[in-house]
């Protein structure tokens, strides 16, 4: 008896340590130690104490979750991990619990990202509905101005963070390695690190609620961010730093994986378009995010060490912050856009049963966007008075981006043309994305053009424009991918009817809400305003009423995901008739993905061309992917 | 166009590649051009006709009724900006409709009820289409840039000699207006402007970034701490009451940082200056 309980106890200890439980436990201890130490050492500096608490939390969280175990085990031992240890790290035989550990398997990391993104979306959308509630009537009647500003800022940051990772995180980790025929990412342990850094940033961000929130909105403009009345700002800055490090690590990992881990025959000219979208996006992120980290480090130094990077009275400049921020901020929207556009292209080929119309044309479009988008950030500073002489060149570059974006539209329309269009939820989301993206793109012209931007800058028109691009286009692209790959990732089918209801509620609600806000913006309504002035009241009320449809769509999605996860139909290996490699492996995908690495001989879009089985992409896996007619609903 | 001639050397070194020796390059798959298929030409004609018809209707509607979407402006700058709005909107109608019509037509005409058992017709863009598309989008884009620069530089004319200078200072959370030519300051009160006289605003801030905006006059510029930004010369041309709003998030009471603007006749403006203790 004692022997059995002894065994049980060791298994329990082995299960809990290391895991997220021990991580959080140690993290809290570390936070307390850091906070107490620094508040004793440095008096009257709340910001220093807060930063110490956050630093303690992150460091001890990673000790607790076992991120440094490799240093003891292999670093000091001067040996490599054995195969068994690698399998152990990848979560072999650990059941569901592997999702709560420092697990290196790319599929586990992908699922962790997916669940995190969905939860962040949920909370972010709750913020959005609170904003719509406040703006439904003139006058600030539901929230105090300080609460409202915090809600706006939290909504913004939650959504920006989750849209940055929404495609590259879940699908870039789960699907991409299988798509290129790899057994895992290039650096599996860095992969786990990138996810858990994101995880560690979430409690830091939420802590802002307990220290008074922050007044700056998602942009965190200094010198407003330097004002010492708002300790919640420290949480914002620290969150951004941790998040940007996480994203940088993930980006390096994805780039390396695509460069060196492609299977035999997977040349650059045969890469699925999704892989192109993700790699271009993360390369762009690698150029953009360092300035984001730097800007937040500088704000924290202003706050903690009383430097004056952004305080004019001591020789600083708010323009410095604006430039650092938007040097990240505009490429960042393309970091979000590129993979979502690529998902849409990937989904479109499968559900029209056609090769991608102009594979290379679309790649050149995506590359063009990547290159041009590095130099457009100045259009956020048209009215700032900084470097007015450069307004012309910034305008030129901003409007040049419409040319490669036009190539994307040509390729998408061409792919739909004469296809066998199977209008499932993923395809509906692609269609919705194209409609919204046209509107978002065209309204961008008014903001890129100097004479009209002079009227619209900082107004509701801007808000509506970037919601059309980020939500209407890119989040729709994410949902296309979500409905497309859910059966592969989870092994269950989502209910098709509920999926379509989700789409239609979302699309109609979205169009109604943000078209109304375009109108309010044209009338001159300023952004970030809790107190809606009477001339804009009707448009705002209509927007808020339509937002109810979006809220309903969120709950339809939650219901659909939960019930399908619990008791949905079991999905087949090739759920939709896709030809990329992820559909050739069994569902659920086994550890290391492939028994034998496949050899690729052509693009994965050979629809409509009768190709002998020998030459198809799956020829050497011994796994045929015929188009079995299956009832979809 | 053979796919295998792009970068065969991938540098990938995966230890176990069982199929490596079988890696026969695929025979070149010729691009299937969109052939002169009868049903295709019929669909194509339909969709082009639909696009042209809808575009004409849309452009006419926007051209005639587009300006009713904008509030009436009370200055020369505002008027020219509203004209630019309508012009850009008319131009963007056919662009947007191109996507909407092709997408909508495809969704209705090529839709299949069940999971498709056969593939769609594989088409690829011809070089003529690629070059034509690039050419048209480039011309549209260049037009936008040239027109935008032209309209922008038209606004930045030198200030005439009778220009009124108003110094605007933002602080959390009110505006102060100084009239250095008259020795008058109106803190947190009203911005009074004489009608039909050019005015230029010198804008700065005491603490954080603010945004000085009067929608009806077409004025919008940031108020930077420690820097002075100067707007282009604006001539208010309609007597009436308007609003200054702050358009950069500046903290707690940002939503309340409004001031009234009064555009009035010369004589009312002069008597107001005197009533504030200024000199003419």
Explain what you see.
The complex is a heterodimer of chains A (633) and B (280). With 633 residues, chain A is mainly alpha-helical. The longest helix of chain A has 35 residues, at 318-352. Chain A has helices at residues 2-16, 20-41, 46-65, 69-75, 83-89, 106-135, 145-165, 170-179, 188-206, 232-260, 273-304, 318-352, 359-373, 391-400, 402-416, 425-448, 450-456, 460-490, 496-523, 537-567; one strand at residues 421-422. In chain A, helix 10 (232-260) runs antiparallel to helix 11 (273-304) and helix 16 packs parallel to helix 19 (496-523). Chain B has 280 residues and is of the alpha+beta class. In chain B, 36% of the residues lie in helices and 21% in strands. Chain B has helices spanning 38-65, 76-109, 127-155, 266-275, and strands spanning 111-112, 164-171, 174-179, 184-187, 190-194, 199-205, 210-214, 219-223, 229-230, 240-246, 258-264. In chain B, strand 3 and strand 4 (184-187) form a beta hairpin. The longest helix of chain B has 34 residues, at 76-109. Chain B is elongated and about 85 Å long. Strand 1 (421-422) of chain A pairs parallel with strand 1 of chain B.
Contiguous low-pLDDT stretches of chain B (5 residues minimum) are 1-36
Shape of chain A: globular
Oligomeric grouping of the chains: heterodimer
Low-confidence stretches of chain A: 611-633
- What's the average pLDDT of chain A? 90
Radius of gyration from the alpha-carbon trace of chain A, in angstroms: 25 Å
Shape designation of chain B:
elongated
Q: How much helix, percentage-wise, in residues of chain A?
A: 55-70%
Could you tell me how far the N terminus lies from the C terminus of chain A, measured between alpha carbons in angstroms?
52 Å
Question: What share of the residues of chain B lie within helices?
Answer: 25-40%
The biggest sheet of chain B, with number of strands, parallel, antiparallel or mixed sense and barrel status, is: 5 strands, mixed
Contiguous helical run count of chain B: 4
N→C terminal distance of chain B:
79 Å
**SSE pattern of chain B:** HHEHEEEEEEEEEEH
SSE string of chain A, helices as H and strands as E: HHHHHHHHHHHHHHHEHHHHH
- How many individual β-strands of chain B? 11
**How would you sum up the major sheet of chain A?**
none
Secondary structural class of chain B: alpha+beta
Strand content of chain B: 15-25%
- Cα gyration radius of chain B (Å): 30 Å
């Amino acid at each position: 008896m004692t022997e059995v309980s002894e065994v049980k106890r060791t298994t329990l200890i082995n299960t809990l340590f290391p895991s997220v439980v021990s991580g959080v436990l140690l993290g809290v201890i570390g936070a307390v130690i850091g906070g107490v130490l620094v508040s004793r050492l440095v008096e009257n500096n709340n910001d220093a104490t807060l930063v110490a608490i956050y630093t303690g939390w992150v460091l001890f969280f990673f000790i607790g979750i076992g991120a440094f175990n490799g240093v003891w085990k292999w670093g000091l031992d001067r040996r490599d991990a054995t195969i068994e240890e690698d399998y152990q790290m990848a979560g072999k035989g650990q059941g569901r619990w592997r999702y709560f550990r420092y697990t290196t398997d790319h599929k586990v990391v992908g699922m962790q990202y997916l669940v995190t993104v969905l939860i962040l979306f949920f909370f972010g959308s709750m913020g959005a509905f609170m904003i719509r509630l406040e703006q439904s009537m003139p006058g600030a009647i539901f929230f105090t101005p300080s609460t409202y500003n915090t809600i706006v800022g939290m909504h913004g940051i939650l959504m920006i963070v989750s849209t940055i990772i929404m495609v590259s995180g879940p699908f870039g980790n789960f699907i991409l390695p299988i798509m290129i025929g790899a057994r895992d990412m290039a650096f599996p342990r860095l992969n786990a690190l990138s996810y858990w850094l994101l995880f560690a940033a979430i409690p830091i961000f939420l802590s802002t609620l307990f220290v008074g929130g922050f007044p700056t909105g998602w942009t965190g403009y200094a010198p407003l961010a330097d004002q010492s009345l708002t300790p919640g700002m420290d949480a914002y800055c620290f969150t951004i730093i941790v998040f940007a490090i996480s994203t940088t690590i993930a980006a390096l990992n994805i780039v390396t994986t695509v460069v060196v881990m492609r299977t035999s025959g997977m040349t650059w000219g045969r890469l699925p378009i999704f892989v192109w979208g993700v790699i271009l996006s993360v390369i762009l992120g690698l150029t953009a995010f360092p300035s984001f980290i730097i800007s937040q480090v500088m704000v924290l130094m202003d706050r903690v060490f009383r430097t004056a990077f952004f305080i004019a009275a001591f020789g600083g400049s708010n323009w410095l912050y604006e430039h650092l921020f938007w040097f990240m901020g505009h490429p960042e929207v393309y970091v979000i856009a590129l993979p979502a556009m690529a998902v849409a292209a990937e989904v479109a080929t499968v559900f029209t049963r056609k090769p991608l119309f102009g594979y290379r044309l679309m790649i050149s479009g995506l590359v063009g966007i990547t290159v041009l988008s590095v130099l457009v950030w100045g259009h956020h500073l048209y009215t700032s008075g900084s470097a007015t002489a450069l307004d012309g060149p910034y305008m030129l570059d901003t409007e040049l981006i419409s040319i490669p974006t036009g190539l994307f539209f040509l390729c998408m329309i061409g792919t739909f043309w004469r296809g066998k269009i199977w209008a499932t939820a993923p395809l509906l989301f692609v269609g919705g994305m194209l409609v919204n993206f046209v509107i978002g793109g065209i309204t961008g012209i008014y903001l890129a053009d100097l004479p009209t931007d002079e009227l619209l800058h900082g107004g509701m028109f801007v808000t509506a424009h970037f919601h059309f691009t980020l939500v209407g286009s890119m989040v729709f692209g994410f949902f296309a991918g979500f409905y497309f790959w859910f059966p592969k990732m989870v092994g269950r089918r989502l209910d098709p009817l509920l999926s379509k209801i989700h789409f239609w509620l979302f699309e109609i609600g979205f169009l109604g809400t943000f078209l109304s806000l375009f109108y309010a913006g044209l009338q001159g309504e300023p952004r970030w305003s809790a107190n809606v002035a009477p001339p804009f009241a009707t448009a705002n009320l209509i927007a808020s009423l339509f937002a109810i449809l979006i809220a309903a769509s969120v709950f339809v999605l939650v219901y659909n995901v939960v019930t399908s996860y619990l008791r949905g139909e079991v999905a087949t290996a090739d759920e939709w008739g896709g030809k990329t490699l992820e559909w050739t492996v069994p569902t659920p995908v086994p550890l290391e993905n492939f028994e034998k690495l496949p050899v690729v001989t052509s693009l994965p879009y050979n629809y409509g061309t009768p190709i002998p089985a020998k030459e198809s992409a799956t020829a050497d896996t011994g796994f045929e992917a015929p188009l079995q007619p299956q009832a979809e609903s | 166009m053979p796919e295998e001639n792009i970068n065969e050397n991938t540098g990938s070194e995966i230890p176990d590649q069982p199929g490596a020796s079988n890696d026969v390059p695929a025979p070149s798959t010729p691009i299937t051009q969109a052939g002169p298929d009868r049903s295709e030409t019929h669909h194509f004609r339909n969709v082009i006709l639909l696009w042209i018809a809808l575009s004409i209707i849309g452009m006419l509607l926007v051209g005639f009724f587009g300006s009713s979407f904008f509030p009436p402006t009370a200055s020369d700058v505002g008027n020219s900006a509203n004209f630019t709005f309508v012009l850009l909107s008319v131009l963007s109608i056919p662009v947007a409709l191109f996507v909407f019509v092709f997408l909508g037509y495809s969704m209705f005409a090529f839709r299949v009820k069940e999971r498709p058992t056969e593939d769609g017709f594989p088409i690829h863009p011809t070089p003529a289409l690629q070059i034509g598309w690039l050419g048209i989008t480039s011309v549209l884009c260049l037009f936008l840039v040239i027109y935008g620069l032209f309209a922008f530089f038209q606004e930045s004319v030198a200030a005439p000699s009778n220009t009124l200078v108003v110094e605007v200072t933002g602080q959390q959370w009110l505006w102060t207006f100084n009239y250095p030519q008259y020795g008058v300051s109106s803190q947190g009160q009203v911005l009074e402007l004489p009608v039909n006289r050019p005015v230029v605003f010198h804008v700065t801030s005491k603490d954080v970034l603010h945004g000085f905006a009067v929608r009806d006059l077409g004025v919008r510029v940031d108020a930077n701490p420690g820097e002075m930004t100067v707007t282009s010369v604006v001539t208010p041309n309609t007597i009436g009451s308007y609003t200054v709003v702050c358009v950069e998030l500046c903290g707690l009471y940002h939503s309340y940082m409004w001031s009234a603007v009064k555009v009035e006749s010369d004589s009312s403006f002069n008597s107001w200056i005197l009533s504030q203790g200024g000199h003419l």
